[in-house]
Every structure is written in structure tokens, then in C-alpha cells.
Amino acid sequence: MSDKQTVHVVDDDEAARESLAYLLTSAKINVRTHDSAVAFLEALPTLSLGCVITDIRMPGLSGIDLLKELKKTAHPVPVIVITGHGDVPLAVEAMKIGAMEFLEKPFDDEVLVASVRAALNNRETTEKHDSKRAELLDRLATLSHRERQVLEGLVAGNPNKTIAFDLAISPRTVEIYRAHVMTKMKAASLSDLVRMAMLAGILDDTPR
Fold first, then answer.
1. Which of 10, 27, 41, 78 has a Cα-to-Cα distance from 71 of 20 to 30 A?
2. Buried b or exposed e, range 168-206, using 16+ CB within 10 angstroms
């Protein structure tokens, strides 16, 4: 497991921290513990984040406060909140702020491990998605204005003749621009190009 998949346990209760660390280590999951939200946030710039497990009630900065601080960062991380029996309203508030999951004490070990694995998988998928999207945006930036117009027409489902009419150019010229678009975007087919447009977030902006 890579360092990016490290789980950070934030809890002021030493016994609870050590218990969670033992459980996650036994499940072959990298783990690092922090005795307060403040300590975690101070270390944050140097950390590689997989996900965070935090108790909701802590002195100083609470789990809710920690969620709010994490939401301000450039790279939000999945957060699992641990709550006491009477803290469900707080847990619901945490979910609204952005927590991925909350577990009531006493929780089942297998449920917690499954929740952590789901959070780590979600994180990995999101990172891959963001990386691919950034790559596609770089390719889009290489298109000329006219090539971008042709691209928008193509992913909107318009045939070459309609695109040619809309842009006041010949169908043959559209074909040339289309070939340039396919090459610059590294698209193997029109369906591939449409998928790229969806991932890059431009499909909804195209003309219908």
C-alpha cells in the first residue's frame, strides 16, 4: 500500500487511538495517529492522505471543526467520524459538512475496516479522475478556436453538414478540423471523444 493510502486517526483518547491503530495495522492498512485536531492540522502540509478517522468530541477543536478546516484545503480527504451514542445529531451535521461516513460506538471492527477501504478506494478513484481531467484540459488548450467549435458540434451530436452550416464553412473543411481535433485530443473514435468531453466537463456547455 502506498504512503498516499495512509489512514490518519485523530482522537484525544490514547486507548482509542491505539486500539484503532492496532485494528488497521492488523488489516494491513497504513496508519498514523494524532492526539488532537490541532496536532493533525499542524502536520497536515507534510502528510500524504488516504483518509481520516476522527472522534467527533474532542477538547479544543472538535471533529466538526476539523471537518470544516479540511474542507478549506485544496485537496479534500474522505473523513470517517466516530460518535458516541448521543452524538447522532452531530454526526448528521458532520455528514452535511462532508464526512463520508459515521460510526457509532461501539462499532463492529469489520464494519470500520470496510468503511476505511471504501474511503481509500474513493480517494484513489478521485485522484485518478482528477489527473485524467487535468490531462484532457491540457489537450483542450491546444485546440484553436475553430477546432473547439467543431469539437463542440461533434459532441453535441451534430453531423458534419450541420456543423459546416452553423460555422459557415464547407463540410470538407469540417472534416479537416475534425481530424485535427481527434489527433490533438488523442481520441480513437467519436465515442472516445464524447467520453473525454464529459470527463472534461464541457459536454453540458455544448450547443444542442
1. 27
2. ebeeeebeebbebbbebbebeeeeebbebbeebebeeeb
Pairing of strands 51-55, 7-10: parallel
How far is it, in rounded angstroms, from Cα 162 to Cα 154? 10
Taking the C-alpha atoms of residue 102 and residue 56, their distance in angstroms, rounded to an integer, is 9
As given in the structure block, the three cell numbers for residue 13 are 483518547
CA distance 88 to 147: 53
DSSP string, 65-110: HHHHHHHTSSS---EEEEE-GGGHHHHHHHHHHT-SEEEESSPPHH
Question: Which residue matches cell numbers 479540511?
Answer: 70
Asked if residues 98 and 71 have their Cβ atoms less than 8 Å apart, the reply is yes
pTM assigned to the model: 0.65
Burial class (CB in 10 A: 0-12, 13-18, 19+), 105: exposed
> Which residues, 6 or more positions from 202, have their beta carbon under 8 angstroms from its beta carbon?
140, 152, 155
pLDDT tens digit string along 153-200?
988 888 899 999 999 999 999 999 999 999 999 988 887 888 888 888
Query: Which residue, among 16, 41, 20, 42, has the nearest Cα to 32 in the 3D structure?
Result: 20
Residue 119 has pLDDT above 90, yes or no: no
